[in-house]
Amino acid sequence: MGNDLSKLSPKGVIHAIRTRSQRKTQTPPQSIKAESVTSNLASSPAPTPNPEATPVPPVSVARPSAIDGAVLNDEDAIYWHPSQDESSDREYHQVQSSDYFLPSDMQEQSRLDLQHHMLVMLFKDLIICTPVKQIMTKKSTKVLDVGCAMGTWLDAVYRIYLNPEYHGVDIADELNQWDKMSLAKCVFGNVLEGLPYEDNTFNFVHQRLLFTGVPKTKWPAVVAELARVTKHGGWIQMLEYDMVTYRQGPSSRILGETFAAMLDKRGMDIRAGTNLVGYMNEVATISGGSVRLANITQKAVSCPLGWGGKVGDLFLQDSTKALMTMKTFLPKIMGLSNEAYEDLVGEFKSECARNQSFGNFTCVYAQVVKN
Hints:
- By secondary structure, the protein is an alpha/beta fold.
- Helix content is 35%, strand content 18%.
- The protein is globular and about 60 Å long.
- It starts with 9 loop residues before the first helix and ends with a strand.
């Protein structure tokens, strides 16, 4: 940008971005020679992540606040709902009672596919729940994916394990009805209102990255609902993200912490990954002791953002696409024009590689025990 944003307050960065955007609209475009544009990263090798993933940041990395750098100029936009979108060419779910605000169309599915490949690379497997692999060869095994969208995870698992019977459920009915390689039987359903299955139906239940749609107060009930439809001795696997970025630059801090503050005000859990184990431990209380989760196992992995090879590139692409998807409401929250917001996202992409930013994903799996 020509200025050192790191020395500015969050509002100062917003002012600088807004001012630059205004100048761009007032100044006639000038042609530049390609050879005059250089990249500081082009001449230096990409940094390599540590061989061992670090769920907890190194001592040298200060643990950031999740929302101190937020810029909230339009409180009404914080509670934006897909039903308010009349001008966008994006498609959304039709569930009025759901707070989930991301689209349900092929463009979003493309992002989810990219995200899927990132997570497989990060955790080095589709099924992190190692014990369940013993039953994945049996035709009697029934598998459920909660929040399945078009069934990317289901189809990927099917390519390895052909025998189980696959099922999926999602509020995005227009996506989950597409034909799937796995021949999964996908239906409409909202886990917050109860899954459309009988007790003790499945041997393995999978759910991931619903932190933008599950209120913090409802997480224990969601875990209990997954356990309800799982058979005694079956397994559940959940994967979530903490909405905290480490080694942030000023632009990434404003974007990330404004989004986190928005989620927080909407009642979502911005540290859902960290809190999964605690939610699983509440199942026994919710069920009155009739159901509990045993052999709870947690695997937390730090993912490079915009550096460290292919997985870092995918994470940055996923994050950037998500930020651009939220252009419907996030610029309004921050008091920015769409052009200024795009500039801020551009700065975010550069900062992540330069600062070697990273975030933490957590997978927790457990065995269902029913009395």
